Fold:
Amino acid sequence: MEERVMVRSGQWASVVGLGTWQLGADWGEVDGRRALSVLEAAAESGVTFFDTADVYGDGRSEGTIATFLSGRPDLHVLVATKMGRRVEQIPGNYVLDNFRAWNDRSRRNLGVDRIDLVQLHCPPTPVYSSDEVFDALDTLVSEERVAAYGVSVETCAEALTAIARPNVAAVQIILNPFRMKPLLEVLPAAREAGVGIIARVPLASGLLSGRYTRDTVFAADDHRTYNRHGEAFDQGETFSGVDYATGVEAAAEFAALAPEGFTPAQLALRWIIEQPGVTTVIPGARTPEQARANAAAAKLPSLPARTHAAIRELYERRVADQVEHRW
Structure:
């Protein structure tokens, strides 16, 4: 699979990575054996970038990755984790002592002495403007606790603030055919600065797979049930912030745009891969079959210009007014 470089850190990632939120929690239950089989299917399909977080299953996702990689010493996988969501979300918690404690825990969970890439996990907006925060992250690098660091953001404004920091290696941001605002300023700024772009929520929490209807019922412990209106965390993380009824209708139109040989999900992933400045896109997968299908998007033909134009028209007509003013 094609790999792309995060210029500032010199680290490489497959253009399709694997997001592992669903292997920890908040998407319904996934048993341990199934989780390991998902990681195996992704790796065998050429995926060399796994994204996780200390809060996914309170460390379960990190531990599952460690278990898998310990049994596959032949693999080279860049593992990115995130920190900061296990405490009250106030800027005062983002200090060096806490960073070291969080880092110690993630290194234990992952079974490594140094983490490849650690990301602040959608912290309060003032954190991005704090010199002390980024000095503390630099300290983690100098202490060889982490090889590089980045941020995961909710808004384009947060992304631009982070990109201006000289040692930020990567910005993780929601980008998909229902969230196009990052194309305007964030991706060009990242390309200019040599900052990697990790595109998350690429299928709009599954909407863009075309599998859901107005009558679909999600499990009670699935964030698509309990966070539709931002009850637990930022609403933009669930269905990309699009109203569910609108999203289902727009997703049906989107599915009809898939060229022959593409599933709707692969169309969404291929669209993201083709945006200049994207380093890797990190769809989740609950089954090995989903992991393989997602990875296959990297080898599909480039989308014709008319398909790009039709996707843009659908976004502007059905979705843009719901999301652009918020994120």
Remarks:
- The mean pLDDT is 96.
